[in-house]
Amino acid sequence: MSSSSSSSASPRRRLATALVHAGREPAEQFGFVNTPIYRGSTVLYPTADDLANRRSRYSYGRRGTPTSHALESALTELTGAAGVVLTPSGLSAVSVALLSVARAGDHILVADNVYEPARHVCDTVLTRLGVEIDYFDPLIGAAIAARMRPNTRLIYAEAPGSQTFEMCDIPAFVAAAHARGALAAIDNTWATALGFDGHGFGVDLVVEAGTKYLGGHADVNLGFVSAAPSAWKALKDTHGALGLCAAAEDIFLSLRGLRTLALRLERHQESALKVCDWLAGRPEVSRILNPLLPTDPGHALFKRDYAGGCGLFGVVLKPVPKPAVAAFLDALELFGMGYSWGGYESLVIPFDAAPYRTATRWQPEGPTLRFHIGLDDPADLIDDLTQGFARMAAAA
């Protein structure tokens, strides 16, 4: 935990309380509750001796400001990590986490259901640097140990996968990695630290796209990586060497979003479950991909390890022509069609994971859609989906 956190000398607080208080130092901001936006590159030193000996809390804008320090401190407390670095996007957080570990000649195991742009980083940047990438079935569980090699450096997973929503057995992956002197990393954007305590389960590096629920209003690009002591120095050094820094306004908005994160996640999850219950009874729906549901294959792992989820899930439709799916999507008035998720707005996109799966096969029985349930009244969303399905039927 950061020594500058207002609670650094106190026991770790409950998450709802930490969300309100973590990272705030009103006494240092003339009594104002929120840390303001500090923009700048140059930091002045009062004397030549101070400059020579770097006697300053801050040295250069890229290396940190009171605004970035406030969010880093808050997230360090929230995640229970040794430290946190901020990045300009969720993908850059994935990249810096992987680069902080990978060395030429290393072997890295990657779950087959991870965020597709993360696969692109692995297949281009890391392979160009001499790192061998090996994709595995996310449902492999403890059998991952048989995939370890003497040069395996990292197991990287995402639970659940952000399109196909398979759950991974993260504790099994951690145990297998640590037994062979390797590290474990996860993308925890779906659950956030409120839903899954990655470091509490022994994960070395936890990635989140702050663009999603941390910002919460579809107006932020930000990522962060929290690290256990086993991975903190390498992460911090790599982050600094790459010159990564998030925008001041995005950091400020993420701090603001942090304060209401628990309330929003509760509403997103509650509304998503209501919509899922309704969808489960629709004749157009074959199955729902959401580990929150008792009918989902990953629910047992979710119930065992997780405290909560969010508003993102997938739906597999029964076979229907593409024009009918397009008619359904075009008819929706409350669901926008766009990438990203985690904001107040409800979204839907069609997806096909088949082209980029290599260790497993994605063969759904019908078209697939990914929904994000925002802060709308779920009854209105259900009404919107009802008229969308009517348009689908008319076009089929």
What does this structure look like?
It catalyses: L,L-cystathionine + H2O = L-homocysteine + pyruvate + NH4(+). This protein has helices spanning 15-21, 48-52, 66-79, 90-101, 116-128, 170-179, 192-195, 229-241, 248-259, 261-280, 299-305, 322-331, 378-395, and strands at residues 83-87, 107-111, 132-136, 152-158, 183-187, 205-209, 223-227, 285-289, 312-317, 335-336, 346-351, 368-372. It is α/β, with parallel strands linked by helices and 396 residues long. The chain folds into 2 domains: 15-259, Type I PLP-dependent aspartate aminotransferase-like (Major domain) (Aspartate Aminotransferase, domain 2); 262-395, Aspartate Aminotransferase, domain 1 (Alpha-Beta Complex), CATH 3.90.1150.10. It has a 7-stranded mixed β-sheet with strand order 1-7-6-5-4-2-3, sandwiched between helices. A 5-stranded mixed β-sheet has the order 8-9-12-11-10, covered by helices on one side. Helix 6 links the parallel strand 4 (152-158) and strand 5. The chain starts with 14 loop residues before the first helix and ends with a helix. The model is unreliable at 1-9 (pLDDT under 50).
Name given to the CATH architecture of the largest domain: 3-Layer(aba) Sandwich
Classify the helix fraction into a percent range.
25-40%
What is the third-level CATH name, the topology of the largest domain?
Answer: Aspartate Aminotransferase, domain 2
Number of strands: 12
Residue fraction in strands: 15-25%
CATH class of the largest domain, please?
Alpha Beta
Give the overall silhouette: globular
Q: Write the CATH homologous superfamily of the largest domain.
A: Type I PLP-dependent aspartate aminotransferase-like (Major domain)
Number of helices: 13
Largest sheet: 7 strands, mixed
Instruction: Provide the number of structural domains.
Output: 2
Unreliable segments (pLDDT under 50, ≥5 consecutive)? 1-9
Query: Distance between termini?
Result: 57 Å
Q: What is the H/E string?
A: HHHEHEHEEHEHEEHHHEHEHEEEH
Trace the largest sheet across and list its strands: 1-7-6-5-4-2-3
* Cα-atom radius of gyration: 22 Å
Helix and strand content put the structural class at alpha/beta
Mean pLDDT figure: 94
InterPro entries: Cys/Met-Metab_PyrdxlP-dep_enz, Cys_b_lyase_bac, PyrdxlP-dep_Trfase, PyrdxlP-dep_Trfase_major, PyrdxlP-dep_Trfase_small
Pfam families: Cys_Met_Meta_PP
Catalytic activity: L,L-cystathionine + H2O = L-homocysteine + pyruvate + NH4(+)
Cofactor: pyridoxal 5'-phosphate
